[in-house]
Design a protein that fits this description.
3 helices; 86 residues; 34% helix; alpha/beta; globular; 3-stranded mixed β-sheet; 22% strand; single chain; rRNA-processing protein FCF1
């Protein structure tokens, strides 16, 4: 169980990572299956949440994705941050 301060965690899965994991919500985790490109789905989810006025944080080490999500009003944290909270 992660000890984090966020109400909802959105987990975006793409490709083979989707296998055996249902899309949908389970408690505080909402799983989304990316139809093609995981980064595009992450960006769309971040934009949607930011437009609703929520505090949006994306966990990524990808610098290009980092720049794109900042452009829609989200901030980023590193995978190291996430691992330290698991």
């Amino acid at each position: 169980m992660a000890d984090i301060e966020y109400d909802v965690v959105v987990l975006v899965l793409e490709g083979q990572a989707k296998g055996g994991v249902r899309a949908g919500r389970d408690a505080h985790v909402r799983t989304v299956h990316a139809p093609k490109d995981g980064d595009a789905t992450i960006l769309a989810e971040a934009r949607r949440a930011a437009e609703k006025g929520g505090r949006v944080v994306v966990v990524t080490a990808d610098r290009a994705l980092d720049a794109r999500v900042h452009g829609v009003g989200a901030t980023t944290l590193s995978p190291t941050w996430l691992l330290s909270h698991l």
